[in-house]
C-alpha cells in the first residue's frame, strides 16, 4: 500500500485526538514570539464608587473637587450663595448693639464711641455719625457731663491736681473747650488738697536727711498734677508739722535743691 493510501487513516487519528480535547490532558503552550514583547492581556480594575458630578458643570469643564465646589466653604456647610448681603439698616442695628454693650461696661466720650464703631465690620463714616448722633440724642453720650464726672473723680477720689485732670481728659478724647469748662468748675483748692496729701505721706518719706525727704515728697505731689510752687510749699509745711527739719548748723548739699519745670 502506498503512502497516499495510508495517509487518510493517519489524518483521521490526529483529528480524533484534537476533538478529544488534547489526549491525556496535554495543553499546547502559548506561543511566545522570538522578537518583540508579548502583548499583555488587558487589566481588569475594580469598579470605583459612583461619584455624582454637579449638574452645574458644563460639558468639557473639569468637575470641581468636593471642597472646592462653587458656593460651599466645606462639606456639609450652608450654601454661601443663599446668604444675602446685609442692608444698611442691619449694619446700623449691629453697630448700635456693639456700642451699647461697650457702654454697659464704662462711660465713653464721643471720640471713644467713634473708635469703637470703626472696629465694626462693614461700618462706614456715615453709619458712625448716624449712630453717634442717635446716642447723643438719647443721652447715652455726653462729653460735657462725662468731662465733669472725670474731673471730680480725679480730684475727690485720687487727690489729683489740675494738671493731672487735664491729662486725664485729654487721654479720654474730650475736646479742649469742653475740658477747659470742666476744669473751671473745679474748686480752687489745689493748695489745700496738696497739703492734705503731703500730710498723709510726710512720715513715710521722712528720714534723717531732710533735703532727701523734701525732694521725695515734693516729687510725689508734682506727679499727681500739682504745680511746682504748690508742691514745694505743701511738702515743706507737711514735713515741718511731722517734726522733720534740717539739722542745726547743717548746710544744704549741692544736690538738695528741688527743681521743677515752670508753672503753666
Automatic annotation (TrEMBL):
Give one Pfam hit by family name: RecX_HTH3
Gene3D superfamilies tied to this protein: Winged helix-like DNA-binding domain superfamily/Winged helix DNA-binding domain (1.10.10.10)
Record localization? Cytoplasm
Q: Which GO terms describe its cellular component?
A: cytoplasm
Query: In which residue ranges is the amino acid composition biased (Basic and acidic residues)?
Result: 1-20
Signal peptide region:
none
- Domain RecX third three-helical: start-end pairs: 188-230
InterPro entries to which the protein is assigned, alphabetical: RecX_HTH_2nd (IPR053924), RecX_HTH_3rd (IPR053925), Regulatory_RecX (IPR003783), WH-like_DNA-bd_sf (IPR036388)
Q: What does this protein do?
A: Modulates RecA activity.
Compositional bias (Low complexity) at which positions?
A: 45-56, 245-256
Please name the PANTHER family in this protein's record: REGULATORY PROTEIN RECX FAMILY PROTEIN
Chain residue ranges for the region called Disordered: 1-26, 45-93, 241-264
Protein name as annotated: Regulatory protein RecX
Biological processes per GO annotation: regulation of DNA repair
Q: Which family does it belong to?
A: Belongs to the RecX family.
Keywords from the UniProt entry: Cytoplasm
